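Q: What residues go here?
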């Protein structure tokens, strides 16, 4: 439970509680989003290795963790006026990613964790829908606040069987197009900066391959955005290898997540 970074805005002394009291499901890591991320990792591992001791252990943990009472307490924290921006949008993104995995689990195994967690996810998604029209500029840093990262995971969630949130999908497509459609010459040779744990350029491409679903249109966008990929003399990329990965929907980074919490961590080497 400790050390723990609560990142909490206090309204009065009654809110000075332990991490496990404030967040009875998502505690045990340094911060809230890391615990959510860890629960997603467990859910994904159980899906990849069913009928194993690992999957049974995950089920036991989830049965203990995902209860209506605990979700209600997690939701109560988010409903506080001072918490409207809590974990925006990195923690939100990991929550919907977890919900997506639980929706798949429900279809494949009949588990009910998706239904139990859904009130919290619905609240966060509703807050996200309110936030997106107010977001005038994207955040392009290589850290938690990166706008493209959150939108990419939220778009996957919106398209998930059992969710299919057309309103959220439409909002994300609109914002993504407004923010990134005309971007050109992303300076990937400047990456990484000293604080980056993901590549802003690759993260943007990872989002836009989801948004621009026509292959030729996406290829044209990518040629303008990252022309280095198409330069056979480029010192920054192994063109053939990276192009193959990108055109397989840029999902190669998802395979890295089981080893490292940062996504899109492939940087050019000069």
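A:
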């Amino acid at each position: 439970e400790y050390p723990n970074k609560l990142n909490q805005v206090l309204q009065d002394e009654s809110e000075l509680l332990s991490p496990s009291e404030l967040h009875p499901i998502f505690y045990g890591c340094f911060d809230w989003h890391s615990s959510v991320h860890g629960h997603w990792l467990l859910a994904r591992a159980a899906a990849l290795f069913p009928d194993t001791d690992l999957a049974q252990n995950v089920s036991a943990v989830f049965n203990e963790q995902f209860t209506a009472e605990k979700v209600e307490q997690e939701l109560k924290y988010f409903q506080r006026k001072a918490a409207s921006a809590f974990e925006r949008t990195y923690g939100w993104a990991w929550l919907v990613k977890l919900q997506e995995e639980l929706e798949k689990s429900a279809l494949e195994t009949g588990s009910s964790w998706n239904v139990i967690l859904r009130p919290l996810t619905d609240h966060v998604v509703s807050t996200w829908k309110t936030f997106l029209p107010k977001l005038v500029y994207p955040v392009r840093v290589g850290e938690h606040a990166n706008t493209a990262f959150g939108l990419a995971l939220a778009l996957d969630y919106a398209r998930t069987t059992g969710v299919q949130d057309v309103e959220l999908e439409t909002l994300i497509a609109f914002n993504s197009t407004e923010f990134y459609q005309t971007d050109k010459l992303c300076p990937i040779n400047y990456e990484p900066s000293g604080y980056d744990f993901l590549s802003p350029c690759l993260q943007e491409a990872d989002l836009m391959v989801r948004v621009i679903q026509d292959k030729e249109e996406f290829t044209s966008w990518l040629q303008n955005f990252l022309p280095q990929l198409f330069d056979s003399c480029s010192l920054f990329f192994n063109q053939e290898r990276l192009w193959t990965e990108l055109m397989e929907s840029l999902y190669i980074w998802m395979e890295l997540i089981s080893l490292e919490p940062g996504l899109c961590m492939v940087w050019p080497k000069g």
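A: Context that may help when evaluating the design: The longest helix spans residues 90-109. The CA atoms of residues 93 and 150 lie 5 Å apart.
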